[in-house]
Design brief:
This protein is of the alpha+beta class and 108 residues long. It contains 7 helices and 3 strands. The protein is elongated, with a radius of gyration of 16 Å. 13% of the residues are buried.
């Protein structure tokens, strides 16, 4: 369980992975950045490199001017689809409770 949490830890990990998985086809860096906005270029690059090292994302560079780079979820990443769908459903189902609990927290 700790390994899974470390795998998807960070503010942008799940949105990036989910977008790549749901998209199902390679996506250019700028298009991915736009769909996960307001992520910075630096943070997206960092997260994609980490996912690439872990075998969750493939990176394809096309030798053209200007350079074109596409990212795609690997077969391994695609196995996370049901898990992320379940998490998204849970968030939707409990959104009001989570919001109310957050609103009730005193500001320190």
């Amino acid at each position: 369980m700790v390994d899974f949490v470390q795998l998807v830890s960070g503010k942008w990990a799940i949105p990036i992975l989910y977008r790549l998985i749901v998209n199902g086809v390679p996506i250019r860096f700028t298009d991915l950045q736009r769909t996960v906005a307001p992520i910075t270029q630096k943070e997206l690059t960092k997260q994609l490199r980490l996912f690439e090292r872990r075998g969750l994302v493939s990176r394809t560079v096309f030798a053209q001017v200007p350079p074109r780079v596409e990212y795609a979820a690997t077969a391994l990443a695609m196995t996370l689809h049901p898990t992320l769908d379940t998490l998204a459903a849970w968030m939707t189902e409990n959104a009001i409770k989570l919001r109310d609990a957050n609103d009730a927290d005193p500001v320190i």
